[in-house]
Fold:
Amino acid sequence: HGNLRGGRWELVVPRPPLAAMFADGTAPGADVESVWRSARSARCEAKSCQTGKISTAETAVQSHTSRDASVQTDQSKAAVQDFQQEVQVDYTSLLSFLQRVEDAVIKELNRNWKSRAFDGFEVNWTDQNETVLCLHTLSYPEAQDQNLQVTGVSWNATGSVVACSYGRLDGGDWSTEKSYVCTWNLDRRGLNPERPDLVVDVPSSVMCLAFHPSQPSVIAGGLFSGELVVWDTSRTEDSVIWRTGMTDDTHTDPVYQVHWLPDAKHRNHFRLLSVSTDGKILVWREERDGRLVLAEGFAMVAQQVPRSMHLKKFACGEAAIGVTSLSFSHFDPRVFIVGVEGGYSLKCSTAAEMPALHWTGSSVPLRAPAELAFSPHSGLVYSVSCSPFHRNLFLTCGTDGQVHLHSMLQTQPLISLQLSKKYLFCVRWSPVRPLVFAAASGEGNCNKCFCLGDVHLFDFEKSSQKPALSIKQAAAERPVYCLEFNIKQTQLLAAGDAAGTVKVWQLSSDFTEQGPREMNHLEQLASETMD
Amino acid sequence: GIPIRTNLDNSTTVQYAGLLHQLTMKARSTVRDIDPQNDLTFLRIRSKKHEIMVAPDKEYLLIVIQNPCE
Structure:
């Protein structure tokens, strides 16, 4: 504040005390500003650089069509050229060569006719296996619990997978039971005989089974309802690839046998043939939507069966003849033998032209194929089998327990064997030994005859009266319904029985190795005629 | 070897010709290895089902298959 004194302003400052002359004080420091930055920046210049703009463009690429293509080697056609046209031959030198060697060769040929040097001389190249043993006992417990029986067995094209069909053979006229088709791969490690590799549920009873001859995963089965179904076991979801469905063309009775028929035009293509007790033999063609459509067919009508003097009984007039089994000749692909319910077997041909009488209602005209009727069994014929080694021989077996060896050239059988007192369900020729066949019989306990087992192996070389070997299949005396030889592994035989098990038997080497003179013996058998 | 004349079917003939030619060459070299002055004159192979006879020559080969009757 200021004191006002006489018109002059005086600043009044409190006078410091005398001691304040030595007070603390700080003196501000002296600052020298740094000039290097500015000095430097006076000499520097600011520059900048930048990469030029990268040009980019957006485009998209996509393949918009795709195609599935698969590659498979085809069976090679025999690529043998006709060599006789290509070779330039110097005939004079050929002639002199032939004249030089002629004597030596003829001398050797003559010597061979008379030689006894090799009589009884046989070489063992492989270890002889003396016994027959049961390699596997395969079963499906669920099917066994339902008391289903094995109705068909089949080996696949490679010989490593066996499939069996479960069903009932004594189901009577009406059966709506579910059934199964089971496959086991015998070459797998960890094969569990109680657990099949694949089980297919089928709504109706499967009566017969056949693997495709060249595709190892395709199986065809004939059902009790008369339908045919083809499964592909390599598919995981739905294995059904073809089916006939229930149309006017399907069989009205159970299908007892299916067979893959080689197509006449395309050697690798096969068509399906089915045989049923309604008298029809039908050949099916595959259509694109998974259906099997009738391609051609045959019908057996009693009137059109050629009658010979030896037959005294035939079905009356227009009745259809129920066909129970069929076998194609290995030598002539058009000739086949059928076995019928009446007990006789017929020789038929696919080239038959005559239309079947009294058969209407089918989309494809049915023909009558029968050419020759053979002497009958006393009961129905369950199985026929044509010999793979001789063009005229075939076997038939039936409910009278007999096996007849027939030649296609005559109506009477060449040999009649009473194998058992019970029914014989299946007979098959061996694929390696011309004189051996196997037969599957019903309950094996017959009172007085020599055969005790259920699978009989017969060897004409050893004995023409009794089986060389009888194998007991099931302990509980259940009949054996079906058996099949394995074509690739010839020592294996699969047999399926009514207890629901499939047994794979390994045969001893005398059933698998062909002897030196078997074909001659077979020819001899075939040319015997009965007086 | 290329077949010139045959009374069997084509595929069997070609098979026999090829296989037996190789075997004859091998047999001949075996004989000559043992004794260089020696040479193969005739080859006979006896099997379970038949006997195969081969008459060799510089340019040609004659193959005969016989079913010995015993």
Observations:
- The CA atoms of residues 130 and 510 of chain A lie 8 Å apart.
- Confidence is low (pLDDT under 50) at residues 79-84, 444-453 of chain A.
- The domain at 128-138+419-530 of chain A is CATH 2.130.10.10 (Methylamine Dehydrogenase; Chain H).
